[in-house]
Amino acid sequence: MNRRRRTKILIDGSPHLARKLANVIEQNYTVHIVTEPHHALTMIKMRETAKKTLFYLGEVLVTETKVQIGQSFGIGIVVGDEEVLSYQLAVIDAAYEADLAETTNWTALLEEEERHIRETREKLEANLLKTKVNFEMMDV
């Protein structure tokens, strides 16, 4: 599982999963905080649809943390004021970069959480579609 997919699941999914995975690593390894959780602004890049050119929509507040486990570094960046989640993401990222034994079982957990996220979204979309009005079928 690649970093982008893994991070998206951990951000969109239950906060308990990120906490659980980070706690496993903290109990078994020494985690050095390279950069404490801090806030920054980052530019949001968008693609204009007609000409397919990139432009900057604006800035967004992010929280960023960097940690080290052994010789491997991990980074956690999350939108908003989320210091704890940023730290947990950095620990999980460093664990994957270090190819720690604990990470071998995490793919199944992450895929299960991804399935749960998808099901929740589908239910929400189904509920929203119930309220959709088709104006072409209305009698005038």
Alpha carbon gyration radius: 19 Å
How are helices and strands ordered from N to C?
HHEEEHH
Distance between the termini: 53 Å
Secondary structure class reads: alpha+beta
| Major sheet | 3 strands, antiparallel
- The unreliable regions are none
Proportion of β residues?
25-35%
Assembly state: single chain
Order of strands in the sheet with the most strands? 1-2-3
Based on DSSP secondary structure assignment, what is the total number of beta strands? 3
Q: What average pLDDT do the residues reach?
A: 92
DSSP summary: helix tally: 4
Helix content: 40-55%
Overall shape: extended
Could you please describe the fold and organization of this structure?
This protein is α+β, with helices and mostly antiparallel strands and 140 residues long. The model has no long low-confidence stretch (mean pLDDT 92). It starts with a helix and ends in a 10-residue tail after the last helix. It is extended and about 70 Å long. The protein is built from 4 helices and 3 strands; from the N terminus they run H-H-E-E-E-H-H. 19% of the residues are buried.
